[in-house]
Amino acid sequence: MEMPGVAAGVALALILIIVNLAGQCSGQLQFGFYNGKCRDGNGFQRNVEDIVKQKVKEKFSSDTTIVAALLRMQFHDCFVNGCDASILLDVPNGEKTAPPNLSVRGYEFIEDIKTEIENTCPGIVSCADIIVMATRDAVVESDIKKMGTGWYPVQTGRRDGRVSSAQNVNLPSPSIPVPQAIAAFSSKKLSTIDMVYLLGGGHSVGVAHCGLFENRLYDFKNTGNPDPAMNTTLLQTLRTLCPRNSGSPNSANLDQDPLKSSSVDKSFFEQIRLGNGILEVDQQLALDPNTRFPVARIAGSDDFSFQFGRAMIKLGAVDVKIGRDGEIRKKCAAVNSPSRSSGGNFFNLFG
User: Which GO BP terms apply (predicted)?
Assistant: First the structure.
């Protein structure tokens, strides 16, 4: 049984890793970057992270699926040209139009948060930072025990990118072999352990539609048989859910524990060790020699929130833009006009 002091202990531990991570993160990101920088029209100081937190809390109360949506959005944004909110841009042939991003959602919610902040202190907070802050707060809201153990500190100070191209979108597929996945994460300076936590944590919530795993049910790798790694009970359940060649729009929870499928926790790792992985790459995490031992350790540990938070901090630092490399967009879906893009509040924030 967890004691009340556990949440405080985890929070303290996460704060202590800041010193260790500071030298690893890109550019000039800072913890508490916006402290003292946001003042409303009456001159009163506002806490940017509190504004985001409240918006997420309100959203979560009516839509718990926002947790999976934001985790996916941050991953898809950071993995393509870095964490620069380029996925939010509505431009011809932009990242939004790439096949892996067609099911990404939450754009309107991020724009809603941006509008709230712009109405309070315009030209200060980037859309890229809003994605990262909102994702963290959504993870916290998903904690079914409401003890705050999902909290982790986020660095801020990112600038928004000005370019978004579908051609740049090269994300790991649901069937990517683990060694190739490791290489993909390594190219972003993320370790194998980071990958295990990010994939497992990100897939501890949300669903996958039949089309993403139907091959595992009937004709795995052209064998004419199901994936032998799949639990036979789960196999029968999924075959009922997704009849062969039916084009079914049905979906299955990525975490097969019915009591924890909406919470970002270690349950996913326990499930894949039982053969209950939905996506091929998820199940292979528990089987591949590069990752099966970390998966086993995580499933039996009590420090998932700490380690997942650490991995999310590193993900949030991938190829960030700072200073004149980017801008503070007025609206998240569009780049600023040339006059605004060239300066904005650059000297207020960096001078």
Answer: hydrogen peroxide catabolic process; response to oxidative stress
160 is in an annotated binding site: no
pLDDT digit string (tens) for 134-178?
999 999 999 876 666 679 999 999 999 999 999 999 999 999 999
Query: What pTM was computed for the model?
Result: 0.88
* Active site (annotated) includes residue 209: no
What pLDDT digit, counting tens, does each position of 179-226 carry?
999 999 999 999 999 999 999 999 999 999 999 999 999 999 999 999
Does 77 carry a binding-site annotation?
yes
Q: How many CA atoms lie within 13 A of 76 on its CB side?
A: 28
CATH of domain 178-307: 1.10.420.10
- Residue 91 contacts by C-beta under 8 Å, 6 or more apart in sequence? 164
Tokens 């540990």 -> residue: 301
Q: Which residues pair with 155 in a beta bridge?
A: 31
Q: How many CB atoms within 10 Å of residue 145?
A: 12
Instruction: State how beta strands 207-209 and 155-156 pair.
Output: unpaired
CATH code of the region 27-171+316-346? 1.10.520.10
Could you say which of 53, 76, 159, 273 is catalytic?
76
Report the C-alpha gap between 205 and 325 in whole angstroms.
Answer: 34
Q: How far apart are CA 231 and CA 209, in angstroms?
A: 18
Q: Determine if residue 257 is labeled as part of a ligand binding site.
A: yes
Q: Where are the domains of the chain?
A: 27-171+316-346, 178-307
What one-letter code names the amino acid at 153?
A: P
41, with CB counted inside 10 A (0-12, 13-18, 19+), is exposed
